[in-house]
Design brief:
The chain is of the alpha+beta class and 187 residues long. It has two domains: 76 residues; 94 residues, Jelly Rolls. Helix content is 39%, strand content 35%. It has one helix and eight strands; from the N terminus they run αββββββββ. Strands 1-8-3-6 form a four-stranded antiparallel sheet, with no helix packed on it. It has a four-stranded antiparallel sheet with strand order 2-7-4-5, with no helix packed on it. The N and C termini lie far apart (133 Å).
């Protein structure tokens, strides 16, 4: 009782059709794989190219950061130095001589004391009929400062810078006998 069953045969046309479909699927799969491989290769090439562009920029950024750090250190150092200096402003002023007359002489001198701060001294001379000269002298740590300026006819204002010092000598020459002087220290 063993019966032999007849073998079922697939039609030849179906087998050919299935073969063609498999070949088309394999070719399509190969095309898709090739396409995606080229996309991946292009992406990898783009990434490599961008990395090559970024690398020198990273060096520039590092150098710029080092420069910024160095400049910040210099700023901090200069701020520290500035805080240790006696910085002057012209907000403070002291009238040293107020509209003082020359009396009978065409010249007049003043020796003024205790200039604790750097600043400047303004000398206003009014002389009716002459062109006076103003001479300014002081000494800082053995270094003399000596300036002489001629004013226009009738006088005017002369401004001299001054460093901290013990005394300043101011001499006005060639003024008229009715001349007056005002001296102000700005610090």
């Amino acid at each position: 009782m063993n019966e032999i069953k007849p073998k079922k045969m697939v039609r030849r046309n179906v087998a050919i059709a299935l073969g063609i479909i498999c070949i088309i699927l394999i070719a399509g799969l190969g095309g898709v794989a090739t396409f995606y491989m080229s996309v991946i290769t292009d992406r990898d090439n783009t990434i490599t190219s961008k990395d090559e562009q970024i690398s020198p920029l990273n060096f520039i950024i590092r150098d710029q950061n080092e420069t910024i750090s160095s400049l910040n250190n210099q700023v901090a150092s200069l701020q520290s130095q500035a805080s240790n200096l006696h910085i002057w402003s012209t907000e403070n002023s002291t009238v040293l001589v107020n509209n003082e007359s020359f009396g009978d002489a065409p010249s007049r001198g003043w020796s003024l004391r205790d200039f604790s701060y750097a600043g400047y001294v303004s000398v206003l001379v009014l002389s009716n009929d002459h062109s006076p000269d103003v001479e300014f002298y002081y000494d800082v740590n053995g270094t003399p400062f000596d300036h002489k300026i001629s004013l226009d006819f009738g006088g005017g204002t002369v401004v001299f810078p001054v460093l901290p010092t013990q005394f300043i000598d101011i001499q006005v020459n060639n003024a008229s006998t009715d001349a007056t002087a005002t001296i102000i220290y700005y610090h």
